[in-house]
Design goal:
Strand content: 15-25%
Number of strands: 4
Length: about 90
C-alpha cells in the first residue's frame, strides 16, 4: 500500500530545499526506489514537501540519506513527518 509523507518544517527556504535536494541526489539512486511522486510547494521561507511512496519500508530506507541532509541544511522539523496510507490515486 502506498503512503503519503508530509514534511512541514518550522521554516524552509528555497536555498535550504535545494541544498537537501542536491545532497540526496549525489551519485546514482535518485529518484530512490519506491518514490512515486515528490512535490515542493508554498511561499519562500515556508516551503513544504509531500511525497508518495510505494511502501513505508522504502521511505524508511531513503530516510537514512534524507535526515542527515535535512539537519545539515539547518532545517528544523516539528517532530516526525506525517505519514498517511493512500486510499486512492488518480494520475492524469
Amino acid at each position: 500500500m502506498s503512503i503519503l509523507v508530509r514534511f512541514a518544517p518550522a521554516s524552509m527556504t528555497t536555498e535550504q530545499y535545494e541544498a537537501v535536494k542536491s545532497r540526496v541526489s549525489e551519485g546514482d539512486g535518485f529518484p530512490p526506489d519506491g518514490m512515486e511522486y515528490h512535490v515542493c510547494f508554498g511561499p519562500e521561507g515556508n516551503r513544504r514537501v509531500s511525497e508518495i511512496w510505494a511502501s513505508r519500508e522504502q521511505f524508511d530506507a531513503f530516510g537514512e540519506r534524507l535526515m542527515p541532509a535535512i539537519q545539515e541544511a539547518g532545517i528544523e522539523l516539528r517532530g516526525e513527518p506525517e505519514i498517511l496510507e493512500v486510499y486512492n490515486q488518480v494520475r492524469g
